[in-house]
Amino acid sequence: MAMKPGAAVLAALRASPGMATAAWGFVVRGQMLGNAVGGGCTLACGRYRESSVYEIAVGAGAGDFYIPFGHGQARHCDVPQGQPNGTLVVTFPMNGCALEVREIDGNNRFYHDSDGNSMPALPPGVQKIRIVAADYEGPEQTAETRFPRYVNPDIEAAGNFEHSIISVKRGGQWEVYGSTCILVNDDGWQIKDRVPYHLGDFAD
Q1: Is 131 helix (H, G, I), strand (E, B) or coil?
Q2: Residue 40: inside a domain, yes or no?
Q3: What CA–CA distance (Å, rounded) separates 143 from 98?
Q4: Which residues contact 182 (CB under 8 A, 6 or more apart)?
Q5: How far apart are CA 28 and CA 132, in angstroms?
Q6: CB neighbours of 95 closer than 8 A, spacing ≥ 6?
């Protein structure tokens, strides 16, 4: 699909996330993603450098939410139930990490489990959903196996592949989507086949 202004793409992601994640690749960036605990934020959207991928930038504010990332940790953010339709929860890209949501004190606590092995024990909280690498990577780890085929070996060290996991509030549900991109220097493109877009749903 043709490139559009970032504001229009972000609006489409809120209203029709299945269409948006099938049409465009997304990466998530922002210094706040390194905080110890996440929370409310504002999101802006624009092209990632000069590529065909869109960058969602996390900034201070309210209206949406972000989950931070820490190596060997499961950092989190609490999202009160009853958020309006189109509310987004974003996080640092995942390569082998897991997303888990638990209900704690009337909140949905979203965790970014950095190695798939760092969650606090249950209880506290009730697990609503868990998305692991096998759920978003595609068969035979699609991005990892395609990356060296797509990229000139001389510049392979300058690139990476990543999976952006985005949750969208729709009605009484949260819907979870994935976007898989390969990034090399200033270029980037989305893998559109053999990777799932819709990863799951859970009740608010």
Answers
A1: strand
A2: yes
A3: 17
A4: 143, 146, 147, 150, 151, 159, 160, 161, 188, 189, 191
A5: 18
A6: 133, 160, 161, 162, 163
**Residue 1 maps to a domain:** no
Total tally of structural domains belonging to the chain? 1
Name the token pair of 76: 């989190």
CA–CA distance, 175 with 29 (Å, rounded to integer): 21
Q: Where are the beta strands (DSSP E) in 48-184?
A: 53-67, 74-80, 88-91, 98-104, 107-113, 126-131, 159-170, 173-184
pLDDT in tens, the chain (204 residues): 678 899 999 999 999 999 999 999 999 999 999 999 999 999 999 999 888 899 999 999 999 999 999 999 999 999 999 999 999 999 999 999 999 999 998 899 999 999 989 998 876 678 999 999 999 999 888 888 877 776 666 555 556 889 999 999 999 999 999 999 988 888 888 999 899 999 999 999
